[in-house]
Design brief:
Largest sheet of chain B: 8 strands, mixed
Radius of gyration of chain A: 17 Å
Distance between the termini of chain A: 24 Å
Pfam families (chains B, C): CoA_trans
CATH class of chain A: Alpha Beta
Order of helices and strands of chain B: HEHEHEHEHEEEEEHEE
Structural class of chain B: alpha/beta
Strand content of chain B: 25-35%
Structural class of chain A: alpha/beta
Keywords (chains B, C): Transferase
Protein name (chains B, C): CoA transferase subunit A
CATH topology of chain A: Glutaconate Coenzyme A-transferase
Distance between the termini of chain B: 54 Å
Largest interface: C-D, 55 and 54 residues
Largest sheet of chain A: 9 strands, mixed
Order of helices and strands of chain A: HEHEEEHEEEHEEEEEH
InterPro entries (chains B, C): 3-oxoacid_CoA-transf_A, CoA_trans_fam_I, CoA_transf_BS, NagB/RpiA_transferase-like
Number of helices of chain A: 5
Number of helices of chain B: 6
Number of strands of chain B: 11
CATH superfamily of chain A: Glutaconate Coenzyme A-transferase
Oligomer: heterotetramer
GO molecular function (chains B, C): transferase activity
Number of strands of chain A: 12
CATH architecture of chain A: 3-Layer(aba) Sandwich
Number of domains of chain A: 1
Strand order of the largest sheet of chain A: 4-3-2-1-5-8-10-11-12
C-alpha cells in the first residue's frame, strides 16, 4: 500500500497550476514532469540558467552545452530562454518562480527543512536549495515518510542542519499529503490504503485537527 | 590594444600569482574554462582561492588543480562529484566555504557591479547565516552578503569578437557572466574568435569592457551525466 | 495561459488602482511604453507614484499623466525636459524623489531580484545620502539603498513571442529590463508579437517569466534631440 | 588668449589612453570625441546602455531607438554592444570605465564636485553624474575657470550641493590643467598665453608647489 515514487510524483504534479513557472529538485521531484495534467501548461526552470526544460535528448543528440541542474543532458522547447546564473537566482530570489518541488531528509511541523547535509558524512553542498526555499512562492516537499531505519522524517523539530527556516508549505510522502499550518501539520489527503491512524502513528510531528 | 592572445599560457602570462583569488565560470563541467585551467595547472601557481560553483571531477576541470594541490580554498555551492576533493577536505588540507548557489552568483555580480554588500533572505536560520549581520526589511530578516572581487576571472564563451564582446551558448553561460564581471582582470577562452562587427550588438552577453584577454582553442566539453530517451 | 491582450486598455484591465506604484521603462522618449501610458491616461487612475528615469515631455510619454494631474510622486534621476513638471513641482503639487540614475536602475533590479537592500558609494557626501544608513566596507563609506518592488511595471519591447519572451532594440532596452523585473505584475507593449519559438533562446533579453500581459501596437517613437551630421 | 572650448576638449583628449573605455559628459566633454589622438583606440560608453558610440547619423538615418545619454541620435560602430541601464551602471559603479570627462559648476581643492544643482533655480536632476564620479577609475573635469560673473569656479570649498565628495582627479579649464593633490591643487600645465601668476590669481583654491 501507500504510494510509490511515481504515485508520489503524480500526486505532486496535481499541485501545478496553468501558467506557472516551477523548479523541480533532483530525485522524485524530477519525475513530476512526467505527470503534468492535461491542459496545464507549466514552464520548468533550471537554476543553471534555463526556462523551459525539454525532455532528455535522443541518443546522439546530447549537447554538452545543454544540461539541467542535475547535470543531465536535456533539450529545449519553443518557449525556452537561457540566462546566466545571477539572473537565474534573481528570478528565484525575486519570487518569480511560483513553486519549487524538492526532496528532503527531514521536515519539521513549523516548516523547517533539512535537505543538504548529514553531519559527519560527506558534505556535497546545498547547491541552489537554500535560494529556492527562501525565494519561491510555494515550497512542496516530496519524500518518503520514514528513513531507512523506519523513523519518521516528519518531525517536531529538524535534527539536521537546516536548508531553510519555516519555508515548507506542503509535504507529500508515500503515506499522504500534509500542510504546514498554525500549531503543526494538517492532513490534507491519505495515500491509497493508508488510514488516518496509520499516518498519525508514523508521524513524529504534531498533527492538528 | 590587442586582446587576442595565441594560447592560454600566453594569455595568463604575468597575471598569475601564488595566493590569488580566481573566479571561474562553469556549472559542473558545462561551460568551464578548461584550457585556462590546464594552463594554470602547468604554470604551477599555488595557494589559490577559487570561487566556482563546483570543482570539476577528479581528472577534468578544476579537479586537476586539486590533484596537484594548487588550491588552498574553494568558495562553492556543490562539490559532490570529486573524490579527491572530499579526501583533501576531510583531511583538512583544503579549506571550503560553502555559499548558496544564488548567493555565490550574486556575490560575483555584486563585486563586478561595485556593490560591496547586499541583503538576502537566503540562508537565514542556517549555518550560512552564522557570524553574518542580520537586518530586518519590512518584517523579513535578511543577512548581509559581501560582493566578491577576484584578482582574476577565467571564463569560457562560445564566440567572441576581437574587441572582446562574448556570446555564450545555451546553459554554458551560467556562472561565466558573473565570474567575468567580478575579475580585476578577465581572461576568456572561446571556441571561435570572429572579426569585430560580426556579432549583433543586441546579442552580446558579455560586453568587451569586461574582457581583457582572449584566446581561441579546441574544447573537449565533457558531458557529466549523459542522459537520453529512447526513440519513440 | 494566454498572455496576449487585444489592446493596452484590455491589458491594464483590473490592474490599475489609485495610489499605486508603477515602474516605467524608457530613457527620455526612447523605449517608453507610450501605448500603456496613454491607456493609463484614459483610465484616469490617479495619485500615482511613478519610478521612471525621466518624465516624458509636456505632450508625450509620462508628461501626459502630469498634465492630467494623475501623478502624485516621481522617482527619477532627470526631469529637465518638462515645463509642466517644473511648474507642479515648484508649486508643491508634485512630489519628487531624486535618485542617481544608476541607483534607480539598481534599486529596480534589486527589487526584482529579491534583494531588499544594497550598499553603494554613489551619493555619499551628497543630499542623496541624507537620512540613509552609512556603512564602511574596506575603508570605503557606502550608503544603504532599498530595492524597489512596484505594484505594476509598464515596459516597451521590440518583439515578443506569445510566451512573453522579449527582445529589445539598441538603446531602447535601457530601463525596460530592470523596470519589468521589479513589477509584481508586468505589462509589456511591443512592436511585433511573433509565434513562440521564433526567437533564439540565446537572444532573449527579458524571459517570459517576468511578463504577465502583452500587447502589440503602433508606436510613434518620437525623437527628442534629432542630431545629424552633414554628408561627407 | 587662454583655450577656447575646442582647445579645452583637445587638451582633455590627451588624457585618453589606448584601449580605455570612457564616458564623456554633456557639453565640452562631448567635443572630446573629435580630438582622440591617432593610434589611441577609445570606446565611448553611453550610460543609457551602449558601449561604442559612433558619430551622429546622416540626415534621414536617425533611429529613435539609438540615442546617447544626451538624448541625441547617434550611430553604432563594429564593436558596439547594447545592454540595459542596470548593467550599464553596474560597469560604471564597478570601476570598469577607466575615465569620465565631465563638466562642472564648481570644483574644490579637495576634489569635491558640484555639477547638478543651483538651489532656488530649476533643478533638473543629477542623471548619471553621481554614479559616474563614484564609480569610474579617474574623473577629469573640463569647464570654464570662472563663472559668468567672473568668479573662480575652482574653489577652496564648493558652495553648491555636491555631486560627489573627493572625486575629481584633474581639472582642465580655459586657463590650464590642475591636479587635485594633498593640500590643494598642483598646476600641471598652463593654457597658451596664460601665465602662472594669472592662473593663480584667477583661482580661489589653494595652489600647492
Amino acid at each position: 500500500m501507500a504510494w510509490d515514487r511515481n504515485q508520489m510524483a503524480a500526486r505532486a504534479a496535481k499541485e501545478l497550476q496553468d501558467g506557472w513557472y516551477v523548479n523541480l529538485g533532483i530525485g522524485i521531484p524530477t519525475l513530476v514532469a512526467n505527470y503534468i495534467p492535461e491542459g496545464v501548461e507549466v514552464t520548468l526552470q533550471s537554476e543553471n540558467g534555463m526556462l523551459g526544460i525539454g525532455p532528455f535528448p535522443y541518443e546522439g543528440a546530447e549537447d554538452p552545452d545543454l544540461i539541467n541542474a542535475g547535470k543531465q543532458t536535456v533539450t529545449d522547447l519553443p518557449q525556452t530562454a537561457y540566462f546566466d546564473s545571477s539572473e537565474s537566482f534573481a528570478m528565484i530570489r525575486g519570487g518569480k518562480i511560483a513553486m519549487a518541488i524538492l526532496g528532503a531528509m527531514e521536515v519539521a511541523e513549523n516548516g523547517d527543512l533539512a535537505n543538504w547535509m548529514f553531519p559527519g558524512k560527506l558534505v556535497k553542498g546545498m547547491g541552489g536549495a537554500m535560494d529556492l526555499v527562501a525565494g519561491v512562492g510555494r515550497v512542496v516537499v516530496v519524500m518518503d515518510h520514514a528513513n531507512k531505519a523506519g523513523e519518521s522524517k516528519v518531525l517536531k523539530r529538524c535534527t539536521l542542519p537546516l536548508t531553510g527556516q519555516k519555508v515548507v508549505d506542503r509535504i507529500i510522502t508515500n503515506l499522504g499529503v500534509m500542510d504546514v499550518v498554525e500549531g503543526g501539520l494538517r492532513i490534507v489527503e491519505l495515500a491509497e490504503g493508508v488510514s488516518d491512524e496509520e499516518l498519525r502513528a508514523s508521524t513524529e510531528a504534531t498533527i492538528v485537527a | 590594444m590587442k586582446k587576442v592572445y595565441s594560447s592560454a599560457a600566453a594569455a595568463l602570462d604575468g597575471v598569475l600569482k601564488d595566493g590569488m583569488l580566481i573566479a571561474a565560470g562553469g556549472f559542473g563541467l558545462c561551460g568551464i574554462p578548461e584550457l585556462l585551467i590546464k594552463a594554470i595547472h602547468e604554470a604551477g601557481t599555488k595557494d589559490l582561492t577559487i570561487a566556482s560553483n563546483n570543482c570539476g571531477v577528479d581528472d577534468f576541470g578544476l579537479g586537476i588543480l586539486l590533484s596537484s594541490r594548487q588550491i588552498r580554498k574553494m568558495m562553492s555551492s556543490y562539490v559532490g562529484e570529486n573524490a579527491e576533493f572530499m579526501r583533501q577536505y576531510l583531511s583538512g588540507e583544503l579549506e571550503l566555504e560553502f555559499n548558496p548557489q544564488g548567493t555565490l552568483a550574486e556575490r560575483m555580480r555584486a563585486g563586478g557591479a561595485g556593490i560591496p554588500g547586499f541583503y538576502t533572505r537566503t540562508g537565514v536560520g542556517t549555518v550560512i547565516a552564522e557570524g553574518k549581520e542580520h537586518k530586518d526589511f519590512d518584517g523579513e530578516t535578511c543577512i548581509l552578503e559581501r560582493g566578491i572581487v577576484a584578482d582574476l576571472a577565467i571564463v569560457k564563451g562560445w564566440k567572441a569578437d576581437e574587441s572582446g564582446n562574448v556570446v555564450f551558448r545555451k546553459t554554458a553561460r551560467n556562472f561565466n557572466v558573473p565570474a567575468a564581471k567580478c575579475g580585476r582582470i578577465c581572461v576568456c577562452e572561446v571556441e571561435e574568435i570572429v572579426p569585430t562587427g560580426s556579432l549583433d550588438p543586441d546579442h552580446i552577453h558579455l560586453p568587451g569592457i569586461y574582457v581583457h584577454r582572449l584566446i581561441q582553442g579546441e574544447h573537449e566539453k565533457r558531458i557529466e551525466q549523459r542522459t537520453t530517451r529512447k526513440e519513440a
